[in-house]
Amino acid sequence: MNVIHSKSFTDSIVARGLTKSYGATPVLSGIDLTVPTGSLVALLGPNGSGKTTTVRILTTLLAPDGGTATVAGHDVTREGVAVRRAIGLTSQQATVDDLLTGRENLELFAGLNHLGGRRARARAQELLERFGLTDAAGRLAGTYSGGMRRRLDLAVSMVSEPPILFLDEPTTGLDPRSRAELWSVIRELLATGTTILLTTQYLEEADHLADRVVVIDGGRVVADDSPAVLKRQVGSERLAVRPARPADLPAAAAALATYGAHLDTEKGELTLAVQDPDHLRRALDSLHAAGIAVAHVELRTPTLDDVFFELTAVAA
């Protein structure tokens, strides 16, 4: 077993005032971030908000323009080797070799982490069992399903038993079953004491997994708290409306624009905050006046999606 990670920290990841620009375009404008040891913190934000740039800086793949950051107590700019020894990274694109079997991929990375032949084979077997890949161990990784590839990629990142794991949108593109399977693996890692920083496009994922959620927009942190607290801050109930005809969605959005309605084309519905019963009635009257038939109306308690849309709208 790798024993270089024996030092303990109250906060495994600490960033203060991180800035980064690409040419004249600022991407990070003073990010502050703390990830307590043994916790899972989810980093959320719209596309281009700086999530992946933050991860790249914290994993020493990119130098910041300003600010400071430590991972496992090591400065990311001055002690890059020590940082890399303490972390595992699963990026948006799988890094496994399609021309090697699952077992060969794990043994290869074990060798790159300076594990001897016997230990490398034993570690590969441990990970195959842990990530539910034993039956596919002898198959080429190129034949794996999307969910299996992501599990193998996650297993590769855990070869050296790092105490800190960065997961950059690990479930993007997976079907719901594969996503749920990966969630189970992530929970198991968290239960064994692994510290995890997760970026994700799926707010449901953050709601299910995270101890804390950090929302960034425009290169700045706009919220940092537990999912429960953030949802309470949004406060009011949400009205969800689904037109009878999907083609009416744009017209419904226009009719409810003054109410701050959010259009979700994937679900085919609009949601808006309900301030009081009269506010609800006026919104529905606006749809009726526009000649839009409604197939489904529902009042909901706030979700993390509502938090995200409200916070990023305010920040914009």
UniProtKB/TrEMBL annotation:
InterPro entries: AAA+_ATPase (IPR003593), ABC_transporter-like_ATP-bd (IPR003439), ABC_transporter-like_CS (IPR017871), ABC_transporter_ATP-binding (IPR050763), DrrA (IPR005894), DrrA1/2-like_C (IPR025302), P-loop_NTPase (IPR027417). One of its GO terms (molecular function) is ATP binding. It is found in: Cell membrane. PROSITE patterns: ABC_TRANSPORTER_1 (PS00211), ABC_TRANSPORTER_2 (PS50893). Its main location: membrane. Keywords: Antibiotic resistance, ATP-binding, Cell membrane, Membrane, Nucleotide-binding, Translocase, Transport. Residues 13-243 form the ABC transporter domain. GO terms for cellular component: plasma membrane. It is a peripheral membrane protein. The keyword Ribonucleoprotein does not apply. Belongs to the ABC transporter superfamily. Drug exporter-1 (DrugE1) (TC 3.A.1.105) family. This is ABC-2 type transport system ATP-binding protein. It comes from Nonomuraea fuscirosea.
